TrEMBL record:
Organism for this UniProt entry: Colletotrichum graminicola (strain M1.001 / M2 / FGSC 10212)
Recorded superkingdom: Eukaryota
Chain intervals for the UniProt region annotation (Disordered): 1-54, 155-181
Protein name, UniProt field: Uncharacterized protein
Length: 181
């Protein structure tokens, strides 16, 4: 960026980062068509060229296309107005709740800290309830097992361990007792 010449003995003023920088002059020229400045659009509308013959299909399509564009612009403006109102409402709520968050509870705790504590207590309670639910399910299962045993519908089989002993003595038959020859 070029700065204007500075008289002798004076330092040029350099803009800081906090100041908005301005573009020199108007917006840069990007085309040969002179577009009207929308900030000053309250003047008389530019002259329209004379329409072509009413029966021309190209003119009809162009008019329909223009009407569609106009409807789209109206719809976009309606949505933008709605979004603007919603944003204003949200900013109002945000300011209201920001003020609430600065308040303290009756115990003297800042509201955000109290909310974090409540969230921690809630999480602890949920974990305790889940563990308790698991314990209740185990107790119900054991109660059903006890009830079945009382009814005698189950049979308990016990297996006694087998004693380890020497191999059985060989059996002798009368053929084994005959004298050898």
């Amino acid at each position: 960026m070029d700065y204007p010449p500075v008289p002798k003995g004076k330092q040029p003023r350099i803009p800081t980062d906090d100041e908005p920088t301005e573009m020199p002059g108007a917006y840069p020229q990007t085309s040969q068509i002179q577009w009207p400045d929308v900030r000053y659009a309250s003047g008389p509308p530019p002259e329209q060229p004379a329409p072509r013959a009413a029966g021309d299909p190209a003119v009809e399509r162009l008019l329909e296309w223009g009407a569609g564009i106009d409807r789209s612009i109206v719809e976009i403006n309606r949505k933008l107005d709605f979004l603007l109102l919603e944003t204003k409402d949200f900013r109002g709520m945000e300011a209201h709740y920001r003020a609430l968050l600065r308040e303290q509870t009756s115990a003297g705790t800042a509201l955000p800290n109290a909310c974090r504590r409540l969230d921690a207590h809630r999480q602890s309670l949920l974990q305790t309830v889940q563990r308790l639910d698991g314990t209740v399910n185990q107790i119900e299962g054991l109660a059903l097992d006890i009830e079945r045993l009382r009814e005698g519908s189950e049979v308990t089989v016990s297996i006694k361990p087998r004693r380890k002993s020497a191999p059985p003595p060989p059996r002798h038959t009368h053929h084994d007792l005959a004298p050898e020859m």
